[in-house]
Amino acid sequence: MKNGITTRGMAFSALFGALLVVSSYLNIHLGFTPIPISLENLVVMLTGAILGPLYGFISVAMVVVLTALGIPLLHGSGGFALLLGPTGGFIWAYPFAALLIGWLVKRVKGRGPLTFVMTFLILELCGSLFLYLLGVPWLAHKAGVSLQKAMIMGCYPYLPGDAVKAALAAVILVPIRQVFPASRIVGVRPGAHSAK
Asked: Which of 43, 47, 102, 153 could be bridged to 33 by S-S, CB 3.0 to 4.6 A?
């Protein structure tokens, strides 16, 4: 990175981190699983795509690290107990999902239906399915159930909602990125850093 970390980038990272914290309180608990329906992965999608890979990662990782240190940020809870609990695998995956989304979305150029479809697929794959790669096996481990049972508890019921969230995020992102690319939002000249 040639330009270093910008004050503007860190300010937006803090802002999106706060949005993630707020979103963690907006959830619906289902009776058969400890995994709630929430807007957290929608915020992770938006954070990575709007801020780009570096600041998207920083924003979400700050929340995860502060939560691990005991500050009650996610769901009003904090400490390693939350990160080692049934939802821990999903939480650990959040910063890396934001990183992947930011890295891939900035490579989608142009406008129109194809841009929307490509953005949607990236958001769905990285902001939803990627989270299940870590979240579901960890849920199976913590709940002491088979992987198949964990898929029922922590994946299948959420897939339709995740598709809706990815579509909503794509609808929001495509026009925003036309006017405000990540480099403009975080105060870095296009091509000024090497996070490619």
From this structure: 153
Residues 93, 76, 90: CA angle, nearest 5 degrees: 15
Amino acid at 38: S
Report helix, strand or coil for 27.
Answer: strand
Which amino acid, residue 185?
A: I
Helix H or strand E encompassing 28:
strand 27-28
Task: Give which of 10, 78, 106, 91 is closest to 43, Cα–Cα.
Answer: 91
5 token code pair: 């970390």
pLDDT in tens, 180-195: 877 788 877 555 544 4
Q: Helix (H, G, I), strand (E, B), or coil: what is residue 142?
A: helix
Residues in the chain: 196
Identify any residues that bridge with 38 across adjacent strands, giving them in sequence order: 27
User: Hey, what are 152's tokens?
Assistant: 């029922």
Q: End-to-end CA distance of the chain, in Å?
A: 10
Residue 52: band (very low, low, confident or very high) from pLDDT cuts 50, 70, 90: very high
Q: How far apart are CA 102 and CA 46, in angstroms?
A: 9
Q: Judging by beta carbons within 10 Å of its beta carbon (0-12, 13-18, 19+), is residue 113 exposed, middle or buried?
A: exposed
Residue type, position 100, single letter: L
| Residue whose token pair is 């979240």 | 135
